[in-house]
Amino acid sequence: MVYPKPMRVLALASCLLFMFLLYELFHSPKPIKEPRIVYPDMKTDPNLEETNEPAGNLWRADDYAADNPNAPRINATILSLVRNGEVDGMVQSMRDLERTWNHKFNYPWTFFNDVPFTEEFKARTRAETKAKCRYETIPKEHWDVPSWINMDLFKESAKMLAEQDIQYGDLISYHQMCRWNSGLFYHHPALKDVRYYWRVEPKVHFFCDVDYDVFRYMQDYNKTYGFTINLYDAPQSIPTLWPETLKFIEAHPDYVKDSTVNARAWLEDKERRPGHNQKANGYSTCHFWSNFEIADMEFWRSQAYEDYFNHLDRAGGFFYERWGDAPVHSIALGLFEDASRIHWFRDIGYQHIPYFNCPKSEKCKGCVTGAFTDGEDFLYKEDCRPNWFKYVGMG
Description:
The protein is of the alpha/beta class and 395 residues long. 37% of the residues lie in helices and 11% in strands. It has a seven-stranded mixed β-sheet. The protein has a three-stranded antiparallel β-sheet with strand order 5-11-12. The protein has a two-stranded antiparallel ribbon with strand order 7-8.
């Protein structure tokens, strides 16, 4: 007996569905990746140890209501550079940070865009917080390609970066973004009277309840910069960044902190990934992943950093190579700041695909304790935290 074709198709689909259900029921789950041990003296990933809040007196969420004019909030903001089309990802990030922290402290959100924000973007983001929201347009002179950049040379350089598989290397908007994040954002008039910021990007996740005012912590304990993730960069994207840095500090040796207190050894390490150091001409490429940063803008506004940024800006590497704000910020901090003023926020669970900071704490949920990535094994070698722990510590 021959069944009609529709019945045969239905029977085949039912068989395939049954086989899929059996597979899902009985197949072995993908094993969770354990943190890799990079140095013999690093017995285990510190995120596998019980993680607590920073030591000392911390400001709790008392009297921080959004409508309280006498709230103990300091001059700080949550900051995001975001496009109108990224509103879904921005809302998701806001929900995470509001749930884990800001619904308790109600710090304002400041959004930046190179074009005006739409009413839809404003309405949807305002709906996620009781805190004040500000929507700012970046001045044209801060965003446009500077006059000294040769666009023909940029196009040739962009083509070479693309051939080397350097992500976003051929997108001029990405180069503009890196330049703005490196040395122009803190000059925006909306931030004139703001000192601290917490940078938040679309599509990131926060996993742990944070029950203290992180900005007050930065102020009270004299911290300049806070990070969660510490990575290697692609050396092909920054081959002249370190040589230009050496030129700068040779001309301004007084800006460089003594080697006993700065993190220069972290910047120049060549033991763990000698190939990176060689291709980057003396720079390890280790950097703080700046999609998360809590920082004091007085450092960026300092004479040392302003002179350094202007030197790099004139050198053209933001366009002729792919100098990112992460290595630029990190090199400046590693040379011009006391390393004790740089803080690893190990208690803040965070993810920007494909990397995590996931501490062991009853305040955390939704991430795998100690996991560095949920991606492929080769991504583990991108973790530069062991070098930071080796040369600086876990403070």
